[in-house]
Amino acid sequence: MKPVRTFVVTPSLPQNLSRLQDLAYNLRWSWNHDTIDLFRRLDNDLWEKTGHNPVLMLGTIEQARLEAAAVDQGFLAELNRVAADLDEYLNAKSTWFSQLIAGKEPPLIAYFSAEFGVTECLSIFAGGLGVLAGDHLKSSSDLGLPLVGVGLLYQEGYFSQYLNESGWQQESYKDNDFYNLPISLVRDPAGNSVRVKVPHPGREVIAQIWRAQVGRVPLYLLDTNISENSNEDRAITNQLYGGNEEMRIRQEMVLGIGGYRALKAINLSPTVFHMNEGHSAFLALERTFRYMLDYKFNFAEARQAALPGLVFTTHTPVAAGHDYFQSDLIERYLGDYIRDMGLTIYDFMALGRKDPDNDQEPFCMTILALKMAAFSNGVSRLHGEVTREMWQDLYPGVPVDEIPITYITNGIHYQTWISREMKELYDRYLGLRWREDLADQEIWNQAERISSEELWRTHERRRERLVAYSRQKLRQQLIRRGSSQATVQAADDVLDSEILTIGFGRRFATYKRAALILKDPDRLDRILNHPKHPVQIIFAGKAHPRDDPGKQLIRDIFNLARQDRFSRRIVFLEDYDMSVARYMVEGCDIWLNTPLRPREASGTSGMKAAANGVLNLSILDGWWDEGYAPEIGWAIGRRESYQDPNYQDQVEAEALYGLLEGEIVPMFYDRGAGGLPHEWINRVKASIKTLCQFFNTHRMVGEYTERFYLQVSEQSRKFTSDNMQKAIALAAWKTKVTANWSQLKVLEFTVQDCDGLKVGDAFKVFVRLQLGNLEPSDVAVEIYMGPVSPDGDLTKSAVQLLELAGRNPQGDYVYQAQQVPCGQSGLIGCTVRVLPNHPDLVSRFLPGLILWARPPL
């Protein structure tokens, strides 16, 4: 039965409790312990029952409870204090960003992501990518960035996980009740919901816009589940990462094209668009298309105008993690849109292909984003290297280390992820400034001052809390499976709050190798059940619904934990989410990470653990490859690579067992005065001192701002001023250079005074170059030199620009360098290269436009 009319019912709060509504609808509560404690104080059981959702809590709480709170002077005083703190936060005039730009015109940054993990009750995220996006918004809010988020509002979100009696992962989906979430519909002045239209074959899909307020930052979420759409179109925003390729392209059209139009519909005009992964790359096309319509540009001119405002971050070193669409799917869903831009399907497909001429190559969203963005980056130092190698075919002839893909290492939002007890310790020993100036090393140097006894007792309480939580959750899992009463009761004896606890919590993709520590069950048995120094492991994580090998890993752990020798020492916690993660990163002693190097782009769970005083034990991959030092944690292996993955598993499992038996377990149980493990505690303090100042999203967002956002915004403004003349001129220049590049030839390359050179000496270089229809100002001619490897390749090369010396009677141009210094000894080689040159180029490298001198035959 369909309703004839719908209406929204809101909680009935006594007048002096009205500020609870303000607190509930600003997601700053998700990283403010005082606000959470206020809602817990109102009704702790209901807070847990509603999944930490204050809006639902206020809508379902007994009126008598509200009336009692309304006359509780202690509660009212705390409510007023917490509300005043929110007001002060929102209205602060001086922030990190305001001080940074000091009176200059600020940009407006739009941050697009397919998922946002702000808090567990807003189920629109799957894992690390979404949590990183949520932390990005939170730090942007804290730092005062003028940033808005754009995503999709999924009716069912990501799945809830449970295991059947055999340990096989099952998925269930629960409807999000949007009207009982901390979000609100965006309405126009007349009170109507603001809507946008996204082109689809033979129709337009309509999406309405919701707003979640994340501190100072608004997050706009598109929702197609409205009556004006067909059932098929209503389902577009049904599930995160659900459905097939066809559903994926439709979702990404709504996110990219619809998200761009949504900002226009609410009168926002960002100068910077940040694409967090390739899911939103269609926004680059919509931005280009808008310039075509508004300025009557052709595609090349509009693309040039759009490019300076686009930033792209890729998180995926695994090929299967990138979205590919076949040409027939592109034609079906974007054919009319492509033709409206004046492109053929061939032209369009070339934008998403490594080889534009390969008709069999599918369209890749990551390639589209790389080709359309001014700046592109990976999310750790190692991932930057891997990403440049992965996409080097897009830049033929460009040395891998110069491919214009850099890196900004991920971080975490500390106020979200550290326990209240840890926050109080930091306040007491570091001073309150750590909350704002996270990147100040001098602050974190004070970690050595933290009382060892306080630090250890704090951690012991959190381990006790983790064990109690795990037992409770295990009981619920067993009851749901229909286990016997005796089995359910036995859950109370699982785990031990006083023994070394290892945590493994992450997505169960096979390359993350969750079962590496299970490689030798008998040896693991000896470690876990040592009579004096026992160890326990808590696992948690979801496999993708279509990832059967990942599900098998979960079943392997499940079945091992059923064995009598492991039943009290190994636990798998179902339905890993932000709440489960908090208990684990706060209460474990060791955080284990065992990916197959180099397939972990960054990872952030280990950062969360480190911020809570938990030590890392990990493969040198992702963030740990740059964060590791011997005095702060442990590395499994030394970056070795093996051809046989089974052999690699064996070697690294042996290394893992060796570290546990030889170093980690003895150090944990080596107790001194007061029963404290002094060496362990010193290592925890060193970890905090070393890692916390860098692996945080305040530093990360600051890097994005200073390296990308401000530059991109300035470049974008420069291109859009004077009626887009710079964009038009640069587009024409690129067309000219591309058309005439094949005429370029290095006719002569001469090196003089190179005999008997010593370090510090210099030699001369002369080059004769044929430019054809190009001018000297169109190119940069460089000497490229460095050591020669055993394979005959130049390595660690240095670059020096050659000067134009004149033009000879034949019409060729002569370039020279009178002083090319030798910086090191050994076999040194050099060559010459020619690059396009224009003052308005964002990157020195344009795909396919690089000329190298050929060695003599």
Quick recap:
The protein is built from 30 helices and 28 strands.
Summarize the helices and strands and which ones pair or pack.
Elements: H1 19-25, H2 33-42, H3 44-49, H4 54-60, H5 63-70, H6 73-90, H7 96-101, E1 109-113, H8 128-143, E2 147-152, E3 160-163, E4 169-172, E5 184-185, E6 195-200, E7 203-214, E8 217-223, H9 231-234, H10 245-265, E9 272-276, H11 282-295, H12 299-306, E10 310-313, E11 324-325, H13 327-340, H14 345-350, E12 363-364, H15 365-372, E13 375-378, H16 381-390, E14 406-407, H17 414-417, H18 420-430, H19 441-445, H20 452-480, H21 485-490, E15 500-505, H22 521-528, E16 535-540, H23 548-562, E17 570-573, H24 578-587, E18 590-593, H25 605-611, E19 615-619, H26 622-627, E20 633-636, H27 645-669, H28 678-691, H29 697-720, H30 725-740, E21 745-752, E22 762-770, E23 779-787, E24 798-801, E25 803-807, E26 813-821, E27 828-836, E28 851-852
Parallel strand pairs: 1-2, 1-9, 2-8, 9-10, 10-13, 13-14, 15-16, 15-18, 16-17, 18-19, 19-20
Antiparallel strand pairs: 3-4, 5-7, 6-7, 7-8, 11-12, 21-22, 22-26, 23-24, 23-27, 25-26, 27-28
Helix pairs in contact: 1-6, 2-6, 8-29, 10-11, 11-12, 12-30, 20-24, 24-25
